[in-house]
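note to self — DONT lose this again. spent like an hour looking for the file last time. sequence + predicted structure for the chain T wanted, 236 res
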Amino acid sequence: MSVMYVDIATIPDFKLGTRLYDLHELSEQDVARVMATKSRENSSNPGDLGQHMLQVAAMSFLLHDDNGIKIRSAGVSGSTEAAMLQTLQQLMVEDKPSVVTWDGKRSILPVLNYRYLSHGLSSPQLINHVDLAVELSGSSEQDSASLHEVAVLCGFPGNRALSSDDVLNAYLEGNIGLIQNNLEQNIMNTWLLNQRWKLLCGKLDHSSHEIEYQQFKEALLKQNKAHLTNFAESMT
């Protein structure tokens, strides 16, 4: 059985903002500013942009199956959003994994639905999806706890997520690698928390949990990437 951990980073859909507000002469950065202003002016949604007004800037996966653990991110700088979405679809068709996310029901799946819709692509069917944030809180109605804070609570490395402004600035500067590395650290913490949750629920005993923990650490080191090595070395 394979399990896939997924996380995404989003930015404003510049093309949508351009069409909605007739901003054809503005840069992407200025379009984003106008979209944010329009969102604040909307009394029914004064905060962040609506999920239908976002696009996927980066997407990362952790696949855990009988062959071990592999972490990857979809696309490189310049890759199209459609290509990233098709990568996810291909992984879902080939591996048929169950999926684990952190706060995915609110912050990941709705965005993906809108993006597949916008591109006219078939959306992957996430039939076996576990939103770990909901499992731990027991409710999808309240704001989710911070992944970073819960990870640190459990003695894991944690990872301070990039703010929406940080993601946008990195994207505009062409620094997709920074965004991907941050997402990969998110899904590593999610993996660790899911294993701890399985231990709590009796789905893993302490011996199996320790074995998988060490195998996970070794898998990170084998990938020979600085941020994965640093993460592994910070695991106690």
